[in-house]
Amino acid sequence: VSSSQLSAQKLADSVGGLIQEEGWQTVQAKCTECHSAQMIIQNSGSRAVWKSRILWMQETQGLGELSGDTENAILIYLANNYGPKEASRRSGLAVHLMPANPLESTN
After folding, report:
1. 3-state secondary structure string, the chain?
2. pTM for the whole thing?
3. Interacting residues of 47 by C-beta distance below 8 A, sequence separation 6+
4. What's the rounded Cα separation, in Å, for the pair 62 and 106?
5. Could you give the maximum distance between any two Cα atoms of the chain, in Å?
6. Chain segment 31-46, per-residue pLDDT in tens
7. CA–CA distance, 70 with 36 (Å, rounded to integer)
8. Could you tell me if 37 and 28 are in contact, meaning their C-beta atoms sit under 8 angstroms apart?
9. Whole-number Å distance between alpha carbons of 32 and 47
C-alpha cells in the first residue's frame, strides 16, 4: 500500500467510506441515492469504465439524466480515487513452490 493510498484511506468519509477528495460530496449525494458507498469502494476502473457503468445504470436501473458538470465531476472523482487496480489477483506460485502433480508420469 502506497503512502498516497494510506493518506486517502485516512480521509475516508466516516459514514460511507468514500475518500474525501474533490467531488466526493457529489458522488455521495448522487450515487448513494440508489446504492451504498460500498458498491463504489469495492469497484475500480478507468474513466471510460465508470462512464459505461453510469450508462448501464441509466439504461437498466432507472438512473436519471445527469447534468454535464455533475457527470464530469463524478467521473473525475471515481477515476482519480477508484481507478484501475494494478492487479486484482495475487501472482501465481513459482514453479519450485508448486506441489508434485500426483497424476504426472514419473517414467
Report:
1. CCHHHHHHHHCECCCCCCECCCCHHHHHHHHCCCCCHHHHHCCCCCHHHHHHHHHHHHHHCCCCCCCHHHHHHHHHHHHHHCCCCCCCCCCCCCHHHCCCCCCCCCC
2. 0.70
3. 75, 76, 78, 79
4. 60
5. 69
6. 999 999 999 999 999 9
7. 19
8. yes
9. 19
From residue 4, give the alpha-carbon distance in Å to each of 7, 10, 22, 83, 103: 5, 10, 15, 13, 47
Cell 502506497, located at residue: 2
Residues 32, 28: Cα–Cα separation, whole Å: 6
pLDDT, tens digit (0-9, with 9 covering 90-100), for 56-73: 999 999 999 999 999 999
Give the closest residue to 36 by CA, choosing from 18, 10, 61: 18
